[in-house]
Design a protein that fits this description.
The complex is a heterotrimer of chains A (122), B (473) and C (369). With 122 residues, chain A is of the alpha/beta class. Chain A has a single domain (6-121), classed as Rossmann fold. Chain A is built from 5 helices and 5 strands, in the order E-H-E-H-E-H-E-H-E-H. In chain B, the strands form 2 sheets. A 10-stranded mixed sheet of chain B has the order 3-4-5-2-1-6-11-8-12-7, sandwiched between helices. Chain B has a two-stranded antiparallel sheet with strand order 9-10. Chain B starts with a helix and ends in a 16-residue tail after the last helix. The relative contact order of chain B is 0.12. Classes of the chains: A alpha/beta (122), B alpha/beta (473), C mainly alpha (369).
Amino acid sequence: MIPAKKIVLAEDNSILSLLLKFKLEKEGYKILVAENGKRAIELIEENNPELILTDVMMPFVSGLEVISHVRNKLNLLIPIIVFSSAGQEEMVLTAFNLGATDFMSKPFSPNELIIRIKRLLN
Amino acid sequence: MNTENILLDLIQYLFFIFSATAIVSYIILAIISVIETKAYMKKNSLVNYSEILASSNSPSISIIAPAYNESLNIIENVRSLLSNHYVNYDVIIVNDGSKDDSLEKLIKAYDLVKVDYLINPAIKTKPLRAGVFKSTNPAFGKLIIVDKENGGKADALNMGLNISPNKYVACIDVDCLLIEDALQKLIKPFLEATDYKVIAAGGVIRIANSCIIKDGKLLDVNLPKNLLVKGQILEYLRAFLLGRMAWSRLNGLLVISGAFGLFDKKIAMKVGGYDTKTVGEDMEIIVRMRKFMEEKNEKYKVAYIPDPLCWTEAPDNYKTFLSQRNRWTRGTIETLKKHRKIGLNPKYRSLGIISFPYWFIFERLAPIIEVIGIIYFMFLLVIKAIRWDYAIIFLVVAYLFTVTFSIVTIITEELTYHQYKKKGMGFELVKIAFLEPFICHPFILYAAIKGNFDYYFNKNIKWGVMTKKGMSN
Amino acid sequence: MEDFYHIIVNLFFNAPVFIKITVLLIIGFILAITVLIIYLKHIRRRLRNKERIQATYRKKYESELISYLYSGDGDGKINSEQQGIINYLKKCSHNPLKRKILVSTLLKLRNEISGEVADAIQNLYYQIGLENHAAKKLKNKKWNKIAKGILELTQFEIKEVHDEIILHINHPRGEVRKEVQMYLVKIFYFDGLEFLNVIEHYLSEWDQIQLIETLQKFENQQIPDINPWLKSTNDSVVLFAIKLAKIYNQSESKDILLGLLDHDNILVRVNTIDVLNNLYVTEAVPILKENFSKLSIEEQIAFFSMLENIHHNNDIKFIFENINNKNFEIKVSANNIMKALNIEKLNAVMIEAFESETSESSDFITIAS
């Protein structure tokens, strides 16, 4: 029995995170949800996930700081996908500079997200 | 009936009339303010600020922030200003001849290099010192640092006006924390106006002591333990919630807070920019801009929006507090004196007939009248002509009115922005309503009198002292 | 005790009028303060409860929505479990507060995702009958209710109510008109701009910017003919059309735009110069140069911005004459142009230009190298 791959999801939109959690768990992944960057970092440090999904804009600690922490402080190479809203192109560029692997701009299709996750984890 | 008694009675009646008029005016202004604020909230409940004006089609704004010896916090403050959600804006920091290492710190933190910059000489200012700097890092493309010889806040703002390439300028205190959509909200009145011109706009300044604000997001609102600061919170609530909105409606607003205001750059420059010879430059430029528009006979407005846009640190010790209020007093006196031709002049319509006289009597003269009242009271005490029952009852009525008004303010805040949500805060605010007349008012009175004294007899005093504490506490 | 009471009452009634009034005032104030404090406590409690209730409903509706989306059989038909949820939500939607939270929950998710899930949410919106409530608001007398209704119908892209919404196109309140305009543009894209032919009021800058923002989001950027709008009697429509000309590179409208250089409204004239600059309409240069002294200062500044972009050799003398213009912006523009020109070429050109001052040619003069 291969243990389920763990994904940390940092998203402050509660219903979006519920939806994604549901969908991804159906696909067999284990999802850990954080409503802000600070909590996300805690979850990452405690659980050592295989993939990180993070929104770029979040209160307290932003998605960018999460990426920076993961790449520079924790030195992890796990794939990171960022979500962005319209008008945040600059932030997406910064995210890539910091080490993000992929991005999806909102509104996005959850099915598309799953395809990309599967591709990155295999 | 001897003349002595008649005289004493007359003086008493005058005080009575003054107080009654003041009270009635506060009540009228409060009612108008509440109605206007409710109307504004209704109107803006439909607006989604985050959707719009992340637009590249929105007009360009320059944020001008003068800085003097701000080394302790300058890096953080600049970072905060750069993180605003508006798209088309630049940040002009004017280092006004600081004697500390502000410039070195900035150059290091933001990869700055000196650039050649052609500066509009329209307004005379003190010359450049180290020059104009921009960043080599595209992430900080919005930043322009200007290092010049010391000339004071007004002079630094004028340099900013000369440098800004944009149509609108936001003049701000460098340590003021802007809410992420502050610029969107404040430019809206300019863009919505169809048959009149908006020349300046301001919003609500809230007190940030003990609050947590990060990257333009208000994360946690707390009431500080310091009584003086709590008193100021109440005072600001009263002034902004129950005063300014009414004046804006009557198009009689004489001041936009120097902590944060948005201006039409062309008009600000046409009137010659800020006056460097006054300490009340924020009020003075508004009066001058209004005078200009009245003389041009064009329809215009000084807009005010009741949304909290900017959070700033209030003095938490009496020394700084007195210095600040002293400066405000002198600023008011200077401005009113400089533009006294407007007073009661029908050529200036509501500006001259309503705003100016009201400000003159109830803002500028009020502390003096109050002190004369106290002296008069002492005098009666000495000649044993005092009617104790009159005196005590009058004081009690005045006190109770103030408390009632403060509580109405707190209720209005609950019904509008409701920012002090935590349990127990309502009670704290009510407590302050009862205490404020004792812990704040006497000091404000003292500062006002000293301000008058300093204005007439002590020409050397200028801006005074403000020791900065870190905002991240 | 009774004596004490009598003493006080006597004191009061024997006191002069002034004391009577002020004592009554004091009692009045104390009563008012007590009432107000109680009211304040009541409000705070009520607001706190409201927030708690809203949070509860929000959570409930979020989980109901997720259940609805994932109990589907995958065949597009609604099964019994889903029908149960629909019935439950339908009942809730009769309460205005619950309805508001329900709508905002649906939107909260719909704004973030696209694809089948978004369609499912849209379908649910219909099933619950929410669009009826929104459409009802259109008939309300109060302007803010009408505007809110239109906003919701826009957010859920309900095409069917078009005819009822268009009735409000010239509503006296600007907020309503704005919602109508946004509806038309969001749902009908460029075709929605037909309202420009009928609006009577001035379209504010704020509205114009938002319309453009919305238009630019569409993939199909097929812009209709803007010429009728450029000739509109409503100056704000003209200004808006000029913006469209700029963003969508409408060089076909060149001639009408040149005509606008004589428009009554100075704002139109200045914006026209700006768009002609963007569209690289060289014919504009000699026209403006000819009339330069009669232009207002804003037009002159805009013209020099144009010259920075478009200039021919026979313009150089004119530019040179303005390198010390009183106006700062013009001076900077003129100096920038001169700087951009190569010094050698400059000298040669200057000589040629001065020599051929009397000549007819207004086009290219060959440079003696």
